[in-house]
Amino acid sequence: MMESGETCRPSLLSRITTLLTLSAALTLQGGDAKADPDVVLPSVATVMGAICGRPVGPDARTCRMKDGRTAEYWYGAMFATDQGWAVGFATLPAPGQDPQAPDARALVAATFAQTQTASRTGWVLRDVQALPGRIGTGNRNGDAPEVDDSLGPVFKPLPGGRLVMGLRTTAFGMEGAQTFSFLVLRFTPAPLRWRLSGELPAGSDETAGCGAPEDGPCNLGASEGRLEILAEAADRASGTPPAWPPLRVTLTGTVPGPAGKVRPADARDARTFRFDEAAGLYR
Questions:
Q1: 58 contacts 49 by C-beta, under 8 angstroms
Q2: Using an 8 Å Cβ cutoff, are 99 and 69 in contact?
Q3: Bond preceding residue 264 cis, omega within 30 of 0
Q4: CB contact at 8 A, 147 and 46
């Protein structure tokens, strides 16, 4: 998200950059990217083989790590900063967790760099990294949260080949309740690193707990968030922009209001998060 690249036109990288400008994302599905039939991404099996350090079957979406934990393919995308990159993520039970029903999961990233000759475009594995930190699970069984890829990730290239990426995830609770978040990741090419940088709340849907229409109006809210990566305004004291831009989550839908009723989400529900250098997180 190894099959190598097919012949493609010389303007491939410029098209990737255009896709980024339009906030489009190409998803790793183990085959051709639907957004551009000329692009062949590393297969899911290639990603999992890189993560577990040995070849896996062509249809494999899981593999066993050296420490015995099972890694499961989770998500991947292609992006461009100064060059073309592809990344595939797998999740596995976090250290010390029950492997059958963990309360938290860890991420492993396989990062590939784009290579290009006069007639061929392909990918070469650059790094496999176990990311420090943990993410929440998607349900009581300890599975990974689902990534809503209907609009693709939200991301922004930054100077020096860096990148901020936000993935909208869904976790499932009791009686069909859903909780939405944006998982924030940061990428730097030198040294090549992915960093978990926080999970930002982005709404919830409690309406599965509502009764039948004849029971009266439902007073359980249903909201979802939109993530914006804001312009890096210069710091008043230093006169320079922050190393990592602020992020803003705005809500649409309905949220809890007074007297146990719901109200439309509005500007008061929006939150701006700034990067805390000491903690390495958006807060």
A1: no
A2: yes
A3: no
A4: no
Q: Residue 151: pLDDT band by 50, 70, 90 thresholds?
A: confident
Q: Among 6, 194, 188, 196, which Cα is nearest to 110's?
A: 194
CB atoms within 10 A of CB 196: 18
Query: What is the reported pTM?
Result: 0.84
- Six token digits for residue 208: 């599965």
Contacts of 215 (CB under 8 A, 6+ apart): none
Q: What is the pLDDT of residues 239-261, one digit of tens each?
A: 778 899 999 999 999 999 999 99
Cα–Cα dist 1/79, whole Å: 11
- In this structure, the chain runs to a length of 283
What are the contacts of 278-283 at 24+ separation with CB within 8 A? 280/195, 280/197, 281/197, 281/198, 282/184, 282/197, 282/198, 282/200, 282/244, 282/247, 283/198
21 pLDDT above the threshold of 50? no
Paired strand residues for 151 = none
Q: Provide the 10 A C-beta neighbour count for residue 262.
A: 20
Whether pLDDT at 32 is above 50 = no
